[in-house]
Structures are given as structure tokens and as C-alpha cells.
Model the fold of this input.
Amino acid sequence: MKQLSIKKISVAGISAQEIPALFKKNDIVYNRVENVNWPEAFPYCPKMEFGIAHTEDAFLIHYRVEEQSVRAVAQKDNDSVWEDSCAEFFISPAADGLYYNVECNCAGTLLLGVGEGRNNRQLAAPEITRQIDRWASLGRTPFETRNQPTKWELALRIPYSVFFRHSITSLDGLTLRGNFYKCGDNLPVPHFISWNPIGTPTPDFHCPQFFGEVIVDR
Done:
């Protein structure tokens, strides 16, 4: 099982667009997402890495991706963003069996859900997803498949208030469970890669038993 430590940054009022520069200033370490868990069926591994930090009230994430084609068709939050060029963050903020999936395509359209497994997940209401600030290097306008090598970046400010099945005031010093993914179900070359390895016979990211350890610094 992999581990990562999330550095705490004392900053208020940060926007998603400011996160890449903030991470550079604070020497945030980037982690590769490179586990090809189903190599016979889905061998392609785009280049992806993420940096993550936290403040008093939010996670800050910066994804950097390079892949052979991109797609951002989803029109609104909670649409099928996993069919696009999609970066995903799954996290269990408490030891109660619930985990959240924050899935965001390369144009900043996202899906937020919670539950104990793949089935019967509860999606966040629009007033909740709107609280997640996003910056996308490719812009925020949906677009059809661009079948050409593309580098893109995505930054998210995810306030703890969006974890709507919990009342979180602080995560300082806790060890959580989570995973990070890159997928693109409807891209010309579909792929399903992860930060922490997954041991299922077919692609499935909704597997909390394969989450890694996420240590939140004080």
C-alpha cells in the first residue's frame, strides 16, 4: 500500500488558478499515477502526476497530464465526466465506510458522489459542486475529441464543506484512505490507471479496499 503526506499551507482565499504557483513556492512534491492494472485489455499509460496540499478548510490539488488525445464532452456537473479525459480523487474522510469520488474532466466539469461502493451512490447537489473552484489550462468550454498529443493541467480547491455526509472542521494529523486515477472511457484509446494499485480482474475504481494511506500533516 502506498502512502503520501499532505503538506499544510497557511493561506486564505486562494483560488484554483493560483494553486500551481503556490505549490511551486512551497515545494510541493508531485506523485506519479502510473499503475496499469489491466495491461492485457488496457495497456496505454498516459503521463499523469498530481500535487496535493491542504489548508485549514480545503484540499488543494494540481494535476499535470500528457496524453495522445483529449475529450471534454460533459456539459454540466455530475454528467458522465469519466468518459472524457478525466482525473479523479477518491477519499474516505472518516472510518465509517463512506468515501467520496471527485471526478473532473480536462475542462473543469466535475462529478461528486458519496457512498460505500459503486452502487447506490448519492450525487452532490449543484449548490455543493459549485463550491469547488476549478482552473483548467484548456479552458472551461466543453469540446469534442481532439485526436492529437496534448498537455493539460487542472487545479481544484475542494473545501471540506462539500463532503456533505460529514461535518468536517479539521483533518489535521489524521491518516485517511484514498486513491487517484486517470481514465477516459470514450477516448480513442481508453485507459484506466491509478496511483495505488488495484487488484480486480476488470477496471473498477470503486474499490476502497485498494485505497492507499493519505497522511494529513498538521
